[in-house]
Amino acid sequence: MACRSTGLTAKGVAAAKHPGGITRPVRVGDGGGLYLQITAGGSKSWLFRYRLKGRDREMGLGGADPDGRFGGVTLAEAREKAAEARRMLRDGHDPLDQRDAAKASQEAQEAADVVSVRTFQSVTESMLAERESGWSNPKHRAQWETTLRSYAFPHLGEKDVRTIDTEDVLSVLRPIWPKTPETASRLRGRIEAVLDFAKVRGWRQEENPARWRGHLAEVLPKPQRVKRVEHRPSLPWRDMPVFMQALADRTGVAVQALAFVILTTARTGEVRLARWQEIDWKEAVWTVPAERMKAKRRHRVPLCAAALEILRSAQRDAKGHDSLIFPSPTRGKVPLSDMTLSAVVRRMNEDAGGTQPRWRDVEGRAVVPHGFRSTFRDWAGETRQDGRDVAEAALAHVVRNKAEAAYARSDLLEKRRVLMEAWAEWCLSKPQQPDTGGPVPT
């Protein structure tokens, strides 16, 4: 191997080249066992050569970087490393062995640090696994996991359980406490249970920031005293198969439009004004233009098989590529009115007879078309693990947090496609026993 010994300079390191004519590397000595090694391809690196116990050894010191602009090792840094290696040799230590030992120690420490960091999500999964044999039924376990995954994981999932404090818990609870106090109260109890589990296992030492008595009770109103935000009456999600079966017994454009509203989770105005030119049959996507969206942003809707079937049926009466999909049956080119869609549900309640509406929410109010969006959200939150972002994107909800919005560029179309097929499968499944407080089959 070619080698010549001379003192180096930074400019000399930059200018040094392989002489050519040979394929093996050449070395330029700086003195004291330090060499600049140059390959036939032109790459440069630092090498420290020494002899110990009758053996010649070589230790790489990193890629050469003359002026330190590219993250490599400068001449001055290489000399410092070589000087440190010579000090080890004077003390009777092998520099290579010392470096290997230091690297192994660092890797062991990093591995220990990784193990010691227990995220809220990993602790939740550990707790659910350990309780596997104790659940009264699989649905109860699924409800626990789905609730935590939908509401807690977006805020706490990646947080070390040792660092979760009261403000972290409140960041999860405050947005839903006034809207769905019962769900929020259950969620609080489940977060408390996860953090208690972490403390028992020795993964957390502090007091539980999710405890109610003497803590959160001082800053949050009691769930039973919360004045709920007045939402549109929505059908309990467990009653959807019964409702869809009853809807299927009816005919007409308004019935088709309402079924389409339910299966796409779109707003009624978006459906009433939908036109054939917005449908991409090949991709099974309905694109709602920005001017018709509440957020004034174009929205792509993945069409499940059942929604496509409704469109095929409606297409028989289509008047042209730019015509309305669900026009008024009495006024031709005029779109259906919101009242027409509401009338479908109203007549379904009237035809059922009785003093109580058959199709009602948990408070006994007659449901309205817009409420089916809430029904879908409750179903997704209770039964699916697709994640909050996917369900919110299906509803075309705007990301409120500006920092999150800056990174939320995808509309999650393919993930939403899976979610919407599952929603349609549930809606069109064999009817089950209605939920308590919901409609009673007649």
Quote the CATH topology of the largest domain.
Answer: hpI Integrase, Chain A
The number of strands is 8
Write the CATH architecture name of the largest domain.
Answer: Orthogonal Bundle
Total of helices: 16
Mean of pLDDT = 85
Query: How would the global form be characterised?
Result: elongated
List low-pLDDT spans.
Answer: 1-5, 400-408, 434-442
**Largest beta-sheet details:** 5 strands, mixed
Helix content: 40-55%
Overall structural domain count: 3
CATH superfamily membership of the largest domain: Intergrase catalytic core
Task: Give, in order, the helices and strands.
Answer: EHEEEEHHHHHHHHHEEEHHHHHH
In the CATH scheme, the class of the largest domain would be Mainly Alpha
**Widest sheet, order of strands:** 1-2-3-4-5
Distance between the termini: 95 Å
Round the Cα radius of gyration to an integer and report it: 34 Å
Describe this structure in words.
By secondary structure, the chain is of the alpha+beta class. It has three domains: 3-115, Integrase, DNA-binding domain (Double Stranded RNA Binding Domain, 2-Layer Sandwich), CATH 3.30.160; 120-225, DNA polymerase, domain 1 (Orthogonal Bundle); 237-427, hpI Integrase, Chain A, CATH 1.10.443. The chain is 44% helix and 10% strand. The chain contains 16 helices and eight strands. It has helices spanning 10-15, 75-90, 95-116, 120-130, 138-156, 166-173, 181-200, 240-248, 253-264, 268-272, 305-315, 338-352, 371-383, 388-394, 402-407, 413-427, and strands at 3-5, 26-31, 34-38, 44-52, 55-63, 279-280, 285-288, 299-302. The strands form two sheets. The chain has a five-stranded mixed sheet, with helices on one face. A hairpin with a 5-residue loop joins strand 3 (34-38) and strand 4. 29% of the residues are buried. The model is unreliable at 1-5, 400-408 and 434-442 (pLDDT under 50). Residues 230-420 form the Tyr recombinase domain. One of its GO terms (molecular function) is DNA binding. It holds the Pfam family Arm-DNA-bind_3.
